[in-house]
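Inputs:
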Amino acid sequence: MKTAALIASARLDRRTVLAGGATLAAALILPSVARADPFEVVEGAPEGGKAITIDKMAFQTPEITVKVGEPITWTNEDGMAHNVHLRQGPAKGHPKAQGKMLNKGDKYTLKFNEPGTYKYVCTPHPMMKGTIIVEA
Ligand code: CU1
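Outputs:
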């Protein structure tokens, strides 16, 4: 009986230790997941990835599919300034969702960390629409 009690006590301890470890792991992992941005603005128009031309008041590739981490670079070839403003999907409401205005010849690159469907417009011309599908 004493032995059984010792075993039960040992089991309880191990479960407590395991539960404690899981809680500690969750505490270490969860805040970093919560902090991760669904997308990033990449400076300096990197090599590779996908390209979208902005011209004639439109995103010339209105729908595009990329993998997580694969950059998309928009180039404005229109005489009018435009931007890329993520309005729906995982980036909705993000402080960097509204991209800077791009003059003719300017480039803007985004990289996505979170899979999903991102819909965007040009802020001053919301009839200009685009969709980005990010696959895991
Ligand atoms: Cu525009």
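Remarks. Residues 6-10 have pLDDT under 50 and may be disordered. The chain is about 25% helix and 35% strand.
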